[in-house]
Amino acid sequence: MEVPKMLWLKQHLPDAFARVISGGKFLDLPDYLTYRATDCTDDVRSLCTVVCKWNYDANGEGTGVGFDRNFLGSVGFADNELSDYTIGARVAAPGEPVAGGLGPKAAADFGLLAGTALAVGMIDAHAGGIGCLGAKLNAYSELEELARARGVPPTIALNERLKEMASAAGTSVAVLARDVHVTPDALGNRSPLADPLMRAAVVGLGLSATLDDLAFLYLAAVQALAYQTRHIIEAMEEAGHPPITSVIACGGLSKNVLYVSTHADVLGRTIYLPVQDEAVLLGAAILGTVAAGAHPSIAVAMERMSAVGTTVRPGGGEGGGDVELHERKYRVFRKMTEDQRAYRNIMAGG
């Protein structure tokens, strides 16, 4: 992700690019926060950020080449443009302590003590995984499914409207969007197609523009996101990944009960939600406890600090189940995706 951004900067804002490579630094956000937290004295890069966003080769056996200079040259960077000073010479695993901890200025800004333990960070979504994947899927947590509506933030107005319409029609919520189909790739498809040219599409729009029409389109979009998740899981399993039997969800959308229950219905798998609904913050805290020596490893800290809060089973939530409907709509979803790529080929003269 960051290599094309730097290349764009070089091509479209060459003066700004020149200023950076003449004494500045390119930093991913987590690494920039660490840099600032040390009063700009330690520019250590997180293994998480450089592998995921910088094409950094970190072979687990220690045979990786790091920043691949051949690759960087092949896409348009000169040998002297991305020095170790500019893109980083030291890479450390998330959770490793940063020497010296929190700098005096940063400590004063936050009202903390200078030297407070500081961990090498990671990308926010990955921190969310750290914050929830240590939860044990035991019988007690499944019992909490009986009270899943307690203490949950109120559902949004469209969710309530969909339930009202379904009740009036004597049907499930899922059926309301049976004739509206969506592919959600407005900014390209990251997984499983890795196709940046994909775009969103909607089939089933009419000229009416009422609140109910908005609700139908919203529901179809929620279903499309679940179909895309199923597509990713199927691609992983087809590639040899062991069968995925359950899913742990975190992040803002995990607070939307319709989104979660629709995923359970579409995937045919139980969805587990962590007891701590701010899993990204918990993941960052877990890294901090390891850096401070409170836990011997990230794995141990994950197990001790996270737990399952709510369980959503297929057919047991607001999505309404309806396996046959989702099977048909998933076939349409896959066909729409294939057709869009075929249309692109036609327009390219193929």
Describe this structure in words.
With 350 residues, this protein is mainly α. The relative contact order is 0.12. It is 47% helix and 8% strand. Helix 1 packs across helix 2, helix 10 packs across helix 11 and helix 13 packs across helix 14. The chain has 2 domains: 121 residues, 2-Layer Sandwich (Nucleotidyltransferase, domain 5); 221 residues, Nucleotidyltransferase, domain 5 (2-Layer Sandwich), CATH 3.30.420.40. The two termini are 30 Å apart. The protein has a 3-stranded mixed beta sheet with strand order 7-8-9. The chain contains 15 helices and 9 strands. The radius of gyration is 24 Å and the shape is globular.
CATH architecture of the largest domain: 2-Layer Sandwich
Whole-angstrom Rg: 24 Å
Helical percent range? 40-55%
Q: Tell me the overall shape.
A: globular
Mean pLDDT: 88
Q: State the low-pLDDT regions, or none.
A: 139-150
CATH topology of the largest domain: Nucleotidyltransferase, domain 5
How many beta strands in the DSSP annotation?
9
Spatially, the strands of the biggest sheet line up as: 7-8-9
For the record, the CATH class of the largest domain is Alpha Beta
The topology string of helices and strands comes to HHHEHEEHHEHHHHEEHEHEHHEH
Major beta sheet summary:
3 strands, mixed
Organism: Chrysochromulina tobinii
Protein name: Fggy-family pentulose kinase
Keywords: Kinase, Transferase
InterPro entries: ATPase_NBD, FGGY_C
